[in-house]
Amino acid sequence: MLVVKKFGGTSVADKDRIMNVARRCIRDYQAGNDVIVVLSAMGKQTDVLIDMAKEINPNPGRRELDMLLTTGEQTSVALMAMAMDVLGVPAVSLNAYQVAMHTTSAYGNARLKRIDTERIRHELDSRKIVIVTGFQGVNKYDDYTTLGRGGSDTTAVALAAALHADKCEIYTDVDGVYTADPRIVKKARKMKEITYDEMLDLATLGAGVLHNRSVELAKKYGVQLVVRSSLNEEEGTVVKEDVKVERMLVSGVAADKNVTRISVVGLQDKPGMAFRMFDALAKANINVDMILQSIGRDNTKDISFTIPRDMTDDALKALEDKKDALGAQDIKCKTTVAKVSIVGAGMMSNPGVAAKMFECLYNSNININMISTSEIRVTVLIDEADVEKAMNAVHESFGLED
Ligand code: ASP
Ligand code: MG
Predict the structure, then answer these.
(1) What's the rounded Cα separation, in Å, for the pair 398 and 341?
(2) What confidence tens digit (pLDDT) does each residue in 21-72 have?
């Protein structure tokens, strides 16, 4: 059997944890399996590196930043190989260049295009455990790229798909996927199984356990995932196409505080304005999420939308540059907002789920700024200060607690 095991930063945060992970992987190896291990940088190392960069240059170039950030993962894979060696098991660490994991050229937000499997196969055939750097790739200029924060999950799934692995296990510091972040909602419950679609929405909406692109890839290639803890032997949560357990109306609640709302006020009310505005944002590589356009009056209209908060400065700059061309009167920005979402495949066939969520927020005296929905999701934008209250109230009103 070929197993891909991915361990996040907290799972390899110090020497003891590295040894613990090494032993866990060796167990699989000694049972006769081929084992590929994908690692994140140790602990909060990626944040530490970003801070270091910003102390020298508040606006570091993305190429150099990736050059720096990829050292985090390179440190952990090398140490892991040493740990396995000391435990008497042959292992080899490989970075993205050595494997050859080819990505697009967008530094900081690259996408995997192709993975060469030859080197890995060769190492597995000589009965080594292969330890691969997560989060990184190489672009057509032979430069290092990174896949976006949390991208190691995506590395693991991509490797599992490319090598037709029998299992892909994502080890983290929680026991699996919960109905809500247990740090915020005390009564949150661990799910046994969840569908790709639900997981994709929860991951995108801030559940924090999986990189959303890893779920996208897993669905595309049919890679069944298990999310479980590296600190205990609990079974974890299985992510797959269809789940057997009886469907709840809503499976989970997620919150995302990495949000800014921007309103462009007094745009000319004529064709092409939305295009020009969002085109400018797209060219600046900014992902726009919720969009709301007001009904035109006096030949003007307003457009509000949300973006990741860390892109606020870039977005404002891109819009200021276009302000005259758009004929906009004002650009407003609010960073103290957050998205709260409910997700569940069960809502597809049940009307009234959104209304129930709005009622619950109303009962908690929480004001809604913006709303967006899909077949299996309802998202509201609210004040950041209301997030905990909103999550607990919604979690309870849909009966998700233990
Ligand atoms: N080390 C990277 C990060 O902190 C990638 C990852 O952990 O998945 O974002
Ligand atoms: Mg992660």
Answers:
(1) 13
(2) 999 999 999 999 999 999 999 999 999 999 999 999 999 999 999 999 999 9
Query: CA-CA distance, 199 to 205, in Å (whole number)?
Result: 10
List the chain domain ranges. Answer: 2-173
- Could you tell me the two tokens for 169? 């296990």
List, as one string, the DSSP characters of 370-385: EEEEETTEEEEEEEGG
How close is the Cα of 276 to the center of ligand 2, in Å?
35
Burial of 140 per CB tally in 10 Å (0-12, 13-18, 19+): exposed
DSSP-assigned states of every residue in 327-352: T-SEEEEE-SEEEEEEE-GGGGG-TT
Q: How far is the CA of 237 from the centre of ligand 2 (A)?
A: 15
CA–CA distance, 331 with 265 (Å, rounded to integer): 6
Q: Ligand 1: which atom is nearest the Cα of residue 151? A: 8
Axis-axis angle for helices 62-86, 15-30 (nearest 10): 60
Burial of 198 from C-beta contacts in 10 A (0-12 / 13-18 / 19+): buried
2-173: CATH topology:
Carbamate kinase (3.40.1160)
What is the Cα–Cα distance from 69 to 94, expressed in whole angstroms? 16
Tell whether ligand 1 has an atom less than 6 A from the beta carbon of residue 41.
yes
Tokens for 331, please give them: 């650009």
Closest CA to 96 of 122, 82, 114, 123: 114
Cβ 113 vs Cβ 102: under 8 Å: yes
Ligand 1 atom nearest to 73, measured from its CA = 1
pLDDT value at residue 214: 97
| pLDDT tens-digit series, residues 105-159 | 999 999 999 999 999 999 999 999 999 999 999 999 999 999 999 999 999 999 9
Answer whether 151 contacts ligand 1 (Cβ < 6 A): yes
pLDDT-derived band at 245, boundaries 50, 70, 90: low
What was the pLDDT predicted at 247? Answer: 65
Residue 296: how many CA atoms within 13 Å on its side-chain side?
10
Nearest CA to ligand 1 atom 5: 150
User: Residue 390 half-sphere exposure, CB side, CA atoms within 13 Å?
Assistant: 29
Which stretch of 22-36, 219-233, 234-248, 319-333 has the lowest confidence by average pLDDT?
A: 234-248
